[in-house]
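S.,

As promised, the glutamine run. Input:
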Amino acid sequence: MADCDNQEESGMKHYCGIFGAVAVEPWPTQLDLPHILTLGLLGLQHRGQESAGIITTTGEEGQFKQKKGMGLVEQIFRNEDMIKLNGNMGIAHNRYSTMGGSELLNIQPFVVNTIHGKIAIAHNGEIVNAAELRHQLLKSGVGLSTDSDSELLIQLLTHPPSCGEPDGANWINRIKAMMKVAMLSYSLLIMYKDVVYAVRDPFGNRPLCIGKILPPSSFISVDNCNEKDVDAYVVSSESCSFHAIGAKYYRDILPGEIIEISKKGIKSCGIVSRPNGKLPAFCIFEYVYFARADTVFESQMVYTARQRCGEQLAIEAPVEADIVSTVPESATPSAVEYARKLGLPYTEIFSKNRYIGRTFIQPTTRLRQLGVAKKFGPLTDNFAGKRIVLVDDSIVRGNTMQALIKLLKKYGAKEVHVRVASPPIKYPCYMGINIPTKEELIANRISLQDLPDHLCADSVKYLTIEGLVKAIQEGITTTGQPIGHCTACLSGDYPVKLDW
Ligand SMILES: O=P(O)(O)OC[C@H]1O[C@H](OP(=O)(O)OP(=O)(O)O)[C@H](O)[C@@H]1O
Ligand SMILES: NC(=O)CC[C@H](N)C(=O)O
Ligand code: SF4
Ligand SMILES: [Mg+2]
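Predicted complex:
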């Protein structure tokens, strides 16, 4: 049996969070925009912990104010920064780097000067044809100052579209021209003078939704309110960030849609279609693991979608046991529902230290070999002598699962049956998620047959791809829109043909 105790990395990481806010007229707004943006970013902290930035403007003279820094939101934005960032609108970004190192230079939002004034951009995703776009831009005489793919998008926007601009800058046409050449994935916020544009790539690979801040005493519904009832519009990678600022989820931005937000309200400026009538490819792992459970995507709460995955897992892979438990956090809704479906008691067996982050400095070898014991403590009384079903949302390298089972067995578990609420991850992702190389993925290293032995488990079963897609799509109630999800890391079926 291979020993993974000295490997600490776990999970699929690297996805950014973007957040924007525009106060409605009259300007100057009475709202505290810098705090709204900071709290918005804080609600998206799980999506990016390397660095963060906020850019605001009064929207009047085209000037931007900015604050950027390495680290967590709380460490970067201080009260004195809030005063300096005062404005009527702004965009913000939490970063996990996918292209371009994790350093000051690459912190977003990016700003450039154009012939019409400054523009700023915040990007979540990864451009799959970045190498080709970089080459074309450099060849056309554009100088680039970073290795980031997001800089390519802002540089593309500085170019007037081929149809020309007889009446001055036409940002919708520029955005559409950029969307024609930049291949997924991107959810974007673009700020220019007194307008923020919110954009999702035609496949809708990364999420983006709109919320409304209504007056605190308002009883008006978010769907039926007039524009004059709204204090501000907010845009976010996930609706979970709306709770802390008193905003209500209004709707998702559709795949390929361009939304214009100004002090007058929001306006949809059209939808850029996908090639050959292909279906959308919203990342299914946003549901499985990335997003916070209280987020709403495609009209359903992530927690509820995860519950359905657990229910489907119970249908596909039942097992006789005394208790069902979770690998906290993101697997919990699936575990709870797996237990309910099979009529087994759900019991917590781990206490998780929530303060162990990714930036934890590598300690000495002796301490490092304690592996996940730094992250999880066993609740021994709850499981000693019992047959356990341990549910996790995903297995990537297998480090977490192997170490946890060893811990459970060491403290007296009788049997441990692993049930995974998503299928084996076999392929890399080129769309903004840093999945380990093919060779590091446990599904490519160890056969299903040998996996229980490798993990020290009594049995291991995964949810099927069909089961996962069914569980996710069943809860989507929006009508009239095509539904489709990317499952490329599970199936090898990528939304666009890749050249490498
Ligand atoms: O197979 P591995 O490479 O070890 O990674 C898999 C684990 O990583 C993730 O959890 P994570 O601890 O990142 O966060 P969570 O609290 O959201 O579950 C995921 O939920 C699995 O538990
Ligand atoms: N994870 C992301 O969405 C990253 C955005 C962009 N590719 C960057 O590296 O900055
Ligand atoms: S390959 Fe996997 S992680 Fe990447 S976008 Fe598709 S479903 Fe999401
Ligand atoms: Mg986990």
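The first helix runs from residue 33 to 42. The two ends are 34 Å apart (CA to CA).

- D.
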